[in-house]
Amino acid sequence: MKIDSYNSQKLLVQSSVLILLVLYIHSFYNEAVGTEYASFVQLFMGGGGLANIAVPMFFVFSGFLFYHGTQTAKECFPKIRKRVHSLIIPYVLWNIIFVLWYVVLQNLPGIGGMINSDIIADITKGNVLENLNNIFVAPVAFQLWFLRDLIIMVLFSPLIYYWIKYTRWYGALAILLLHPWLMTLSKTFNQFGVAYFVLGGTIAMCSDLEYVTKRVCSTPVFIMSFVVWLVHATLLALQIQVAFCHWGVLSVLAGMITTWKVYDFLASKTQVIHVMSPLRPLLGYSFFVYLFHEPAFNIIKKIGVKALGTGDIALIVLFLINPIIMYFISVLVAKLLQKIMPKVYGVLVGGR
Question: If pLDDT is split at 50, 70 and 90, which confidence band does 47 have?
Answer without folding.
Answer: confident
